[in-house]
Every structure is written in C-alpha cells, then in structure tokens.
C-alpha cells in the first residue's frame, strides 16, 4: 500500500563474518573477507526482494 519499498538494514550482518576473518589475520584473509561481504550483499538483496531461500 506504500509507494516506496521498505527493508531492513543488513549492514552489521554483512560485516560480521568479514570482521571475524580480519580479526584473525587481516592481510591473509583480505580476499576471503571481500568474498564473504559480496556473498552477504547478494543474499541481503535477495532477502529484501523476498527471494532469499536460506542458501
């Protein structure tokens, strides 16, 4: 009934897994952390559209 989309802010959820990787070794886990954030961003986008199936 509203003319705008409403979604949840997933910012912290996107960052949490990457922060855990970086806490162990930022240089060694840099690429894996980026992949994790990208995957979470994709999942969050799907969730905002009601298309996320839980993997």
Keywords:
single chain; mainly alpha; 2 helices; 62% helix; elongated
Task: Provide structural commentary.
By secondary structure, the chain is mostly helical. The protein has two helices and no strands. α1 (11-25) packs antiparallel against α2.
The quaternary structure here is single chain
Query: What is the number of beta strands?
Result: 0
Helix content bin: 55-70%
* Uncertain ranges: none
What value does the Rg take, in angstroms?
14 Å
Shape descriptor: elongated
Q: Provide the structure class.
A: mainly alpha
Gap between N and C termini: 30 Å
What's the arrangement of secondary structure elements?
Elements: H1 11-25, H2 30-48
Question: Brief overview, please?
Answer:
With 55 residues, this protein is an all-alpha fold.
């Amino acid at each position: 009934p509203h003319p705008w989309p409403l979604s949840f802010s997933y910012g912290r959820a996107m960052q949490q897994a990457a922060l855990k990787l970086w806490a162990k070794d930022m240089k060694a886990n840099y690429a894996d952390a980026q992949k994790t954030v990208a995957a979470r961003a994709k999942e969050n986008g799907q969730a905002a559209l009601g298309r996320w199936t839980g993997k």
